[in-house]
Amino acid sequence: MKLIRSAFILLLVLFMLATCSQVSEPPGGEWTLVSLNGNPVVEGTQISLTFGDGQVSGSAGCNSYGGTFDSGGEGIEIANLTMTLMACTDAGVMAQEGAYLAALEAVETFKVEDEQLVLSGPDVELQFKR
Q1: CATH class of the structural domain 24-129
Q2: b vs e for 44-57, b when ≥16 Cβ sit within 10 Å of the residue's Cβ?
Q3: What is the mean pLDDT of the chain?
């Protein structure tokens, strides 16, 4: 009976460890956007995303932005985005900025692998690098 109980406890511990290893840590630090839905960023612009203490912030290419995030497992929600209201003269930069901010609010999952962060959701994929 002790052998069966010991085996059961061992299997339970192994199951718990396997389950824990599948949970991703929330993304942290600063990231630079490489592509938005497969398209590279507009030349001459840099889009950044920084995670810290439940907050996100960065540059959307023209304006600065901030908001909140909540993550669990591989799920993530970015919400309550606010931004400065500067106008850039290049229409492509402003269109990219609008698409980027809308995509951020649509993401549902994240994956961090080899210094790369991928945020995705319905019809949205953002690829970042450190």
Answers
A1: mainly beta
A2: ebebbbebeeeebb
A3: 86
